[in-house]
């Protein structure tokens, strides 16, 4: 396995995003003999982490949680117990996190990356953009608290990059879009200038994320693969999320291609993705307008005027329903957990009182 991060003793943890604010918040951990570390890769109860004195392989047992959303992930800052058997003992609060519903379709969320500043959504120019998929990815990106950026890849293979750019812009209000080619280097310098802090690459298999990442790194560190000619889809050459320092500062997190993109309580993200519908809805005659057959519906008026498509409204409704369903399941799970905790407390108190009665 290649060494995916340089020796931090050369540049300090600031290369990896360590700030004065984080340093001040770490005082209590430092007094306990712990040192700060950033998780670069998680693998079956262990992780690769970067510290001021170098990379370490650390145990994650102390951070186990039955809730995947609380589990350590790539990009997390943590308190590390140094020594012959190093282990992470606490996670620092996240300032942002990309969260989707877990692949098991439970009510739990899954964190794809933590403490991210920019989410690069990679879209291949070799095929028409998948509108529904792009809207889901943007919802995750906006809801994370990071800044989304759409990067159209493989411009050297595109039949009409300008047309794809124009179509994509209608799906992503308020999001910058950049046409690139890792093969020719087109706009890689522009993309590099736009990135700062921690950047994560998201997209489908075959979208060119790893090739784009290698272009940014100036080195073939990330595994790449071929795509199928019939549908432009690729195999999962990236099998786990990994954090790599960028030559000009900041870090890059590469992720496996996402097949399933289920929303997890992403209401704020959906408001951003469908900002034009949210804006139009403010002019509807009724505050609870469903944008269907109600008189005075500004959304339907925009569709009739050709300013909004039926597909866009249908996608908005579908994702709103999916998000509401996910949120309701999460609420039900949390209520169940609170009930179980209360039952355990009650049972414990009853046993305590019974023991006291027996002793009196």
Automatic annotation (TrEMBL):
Membrane-crossing residue ranges in chain numbering: none
Lineage of the source organism?
Bacteria, Bacillati, Actinomycetota, Actinomycetes, Streptosporangiales
As for subcellular location, the record says: Cytoplasm
- Listed name of the protein: Small ribosomal subunit biogenesis GTPase RsgA
Keyword check for Ribosomal protein, yes or no: no
**Record InterPro entries:** G_CP_dom, P-loop_NTPase, Ribosome_biogen_GTPase_RsgA, RsgA_GTPase_dom
**Record-linked Gene3D superfamilies:** P-loop containing nucleotide triphosphate hydrolases (3.40.50.300), Probable gtpase engc, domain 3 (1.10.40.50)
Concerning its family, UniProt says: Belongs to the TRAFAC class YlqF/YawG GTPase family. RsgA subfamily.
Q: Which CDD domains match?
A: YjeQ_EngC (cd01854)
Which residue ranges does the record assign to the CP-type G domain? 104-261
